[in-house]
Amino acid sequence: MTGELPGIFRQCRAVLLDFDGPVCSVFAGLPAPVVAAWLKQLLQDEGAELPRDVAELDDPLKVLRRTAVFAPELVGKVEAAFIGHEIEAAGCAEITPGVRELLAACAEAGRPVVIVSNNSEPAIERFLDLAELSGQVAGIVGRPIGNPAEMKPHPRSVLRACEMVDVPPGEAVLIGDSDFDMQAAANAGTRSVAYANEPGKAAGLAQAGADAVTDSMREIAEAVRASR
What is the pTM of this model? Predict the structure, then answer.
């Protein structure tokens, strides 16, 4: 569906960009399953009995989300520990090929970029500083601390990003690599472009509601330039 990309960007005034995937691989140097294991151990050390499904999770975001359900009194401790691990991971994260070109293309086209992520703002800020990209984004909306239920696919973060740049949701496009991103865009009323960064993801992201799908951030950058 890549032929639809220029048309999508002609109709948008702001670009909302998911972090883990489109901007970098956050847990490239500190694997997500390791962080998830640390968070589960913290829960057990605090006396929580892990439900079977939680014991099997290898995604720290899912561990945090489920903590709010079975041990809400521990969300603060799990959140604080998770942020520390995210900041550490951000120091060795791998930048996504093509994201520099995309940010440059958006700047040339006069379209502000806001990072919209379920990762924490301190971790995002650290990566952007290390990659010397901080000056190329208009804002950052990380996960709502202490309220995992409002992470994507909840529309809160997408709507807040639109408010930051004073652009109506219908004139923004969210670029993401997960079903939650596509659903958050639909819930907020924005367009969506799926970055299918792994084999087999394209069909699922299209089914989740993506307006266009591509496996290349450089292709998205070219579409932004073509839309000027």
Answer: 0.96
